[in-house]
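The aim of this short unit is practical: by the end, you should be able to scan a pair of folded records and say something sensible about each. We start with the first protein, listed as its amino acid sequence and then its structure tokens.
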Amino acid sequence: MDAEFLESLLAAVADFIGEVAAASSGISGVQRGPSPWAETLGRLGDKPLTLQPDEHQGIQAIREADPAFDLAAFLVRVGEMFSAYHAALDRGDLTPVRRFVDETAYAQLAPATEKSGRRFEGPRSLKVRTIKPITARHDDGLDLVRVFITAEQAGNDDLLCEYWELVRKRGTLTKPGLDIAHCPNCGGPVDGLDPTRCAYCGTRLADPALDWVARKITPQ
């Protein structure tokens, strides 16, 4: 990720975590676990997150089943996907996003992108303003988190707004430090020639039984 984009992403995550930590009512006790971003996000402190019951009670259920689940690190991870997705849009080739996008979603996104001719200048021109979960569930065999993201683009007054729906199989555990550039099974680097399967262990990369996968990306 571009340094400027990453700085804006971390600031947006910090803002959200600060908001829920400062809330006076809701579900408490959802602690931030060990995170690959712990040093960078150290300014967030060690406060428990206080989450609004109607909006985020699923987060607590996910964390109870997966104690290593870190909401701040998860949001940074979604931001990483967001950056890669818009970089791919800028190049006019969505193939690289198959590492983390569900096959059904990819089949819908790719032709729609080609038909629309929609192009962005890439992640270097984007700054995240808001990133926050709006729905979370731990049921029906799946963990599901729906995230709302807003970003501004240099030289463009229009705010980019998207909903990202992330899913994984219920019972899947967080692997701290994992990112979209590595296989969720063996940790090997993703081969740019085939972003669908690991070149080392042959695992299908966008597998919700192993890791979070983007099931829907919806512009507002």
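Turning to the second protein, read its sequence before its tokens, just as you did above.
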Amino acid sequence: MWHIGIDLHPKTLWMGAVDDAGEIMDPLRFDCQDTAAVLRAAQMLRPFRAVIEATGTYRWLYDLLSPHGTVLLAHPLRLRAMIQRRAKTDKLDTRLLANLLRIDQIPLAYVPPRKYQQLRGCLGSGRHLSLVAPRPKAPTERNTTNP
């Protein structure tokens, strides 16, 4: 079985893999818009387990890969607390995620069901709008006398 570590960014992703024996596949870089190439690379490594670090844009990749293998979501803060290192590159991150997955040491994050994820998206948009909407100014003087 292959263990795939995926480092996801808004426009690109890096995918690296390790098999059960420890054989390493060199990390590959993909454009996020090229979903067919991402899927082809994952299908070449079947059967697989993949791990994605939880970011704001993980859901499309989770939905793409889930029908073809097991996909887990790593909790980013727990992962950072667990691993402290000086060098941080995308290639090293993919190898680290793949190796942690191979030894079952991934700190898991909650993956909400699809309908709750959509609701979160709607609520998040509303929250964003309330943060950028103009607010009335607070009065600078208080009228303390009663007319």
